[in-house]
Amino acid sequence: MGNFSEQSLKLFLFTFGFFTLGLLYYWLVRDSTMLSEYLAISHYTKEIKFLRIDWFPSFVHQFSFIIFTWLVLERSYLWFSLLFWFIINSLFELSQAMPSEYLNYFPKVMANYFKYGTYSHEDMFAIVGATVVAYIVMIKYKKGI
Q1: Within a 10 A sphere around the Cβ of 109, how many other Cβ atoms?
Q2: Is 19 within 8 Å of 60 (Cβ atoms)?
Q3: How far apart are CA 25 and CA 43, in angstroms?
Q4: Which is more confident, 42 or 124?
């Protein structure tokens, strides 16, 4: 991995673990998926209220992609990493609230995502919060913690 320092490797492994946790949460808890149906747990996770942190996958996705991008760019381009994923994820979240008459302007896969997705204020706050947390982590790592 070229100039991947020990510090960068630790951050990568932490972020990868965090991303995996978010993915597992999404698959097992947030929505009824084939995996949660197969494991016969989808009914139980909906009844356990303290597990219902629906914004968590959005937070994890935003934070992880910012950090992964920053690490791949050799801990350079801090603002690019932050703004790129903030803009992409915000647009995708906001587009889920788009009126259906505009969906024909998008490729079918995107139109279906916008049509069947659900806009959430909590997801938007998670995107903003994860961007701020990623910024703090990046600044601390640039300073060597």
Answers
A1: 7
A2: yes
A3: 15
A4: 124
CB 18 within 8 A of CB 60: yes
Q: Beta-strand (E) ranges in 28-105?
A: none
Query: Residue 98's domain spans which residues?
Result: 6-142
Q: Is residue 71 part of a domain?
A: yes
* Cα–Cα distance measured from residue 28 to residue 130, given in angstroms and rounded to the nearest whole number: 22
| Residue 130, helix vs strand vs coil | helix
Residues 80, 120: Cα–Cα separation, whole Å: 25
Give domain status of residue 1, yes or no: no
Looking at the 3D structure of the chain, how many domains does it have?
A: 1
What's the pLDDT tens digit per position in 124-134?
Answer: 999 999 999 99
Mean pLDDT (the chain) is 85
Alpha carbon 125 to its chain centroid, in Å, reads 12
In a domain, 30, yes or no: yes
Q: How do residues 55-86 score in pLDDT, each as one tens digit?
A: 888 999 999 999 999 999 988 899 999 999 99
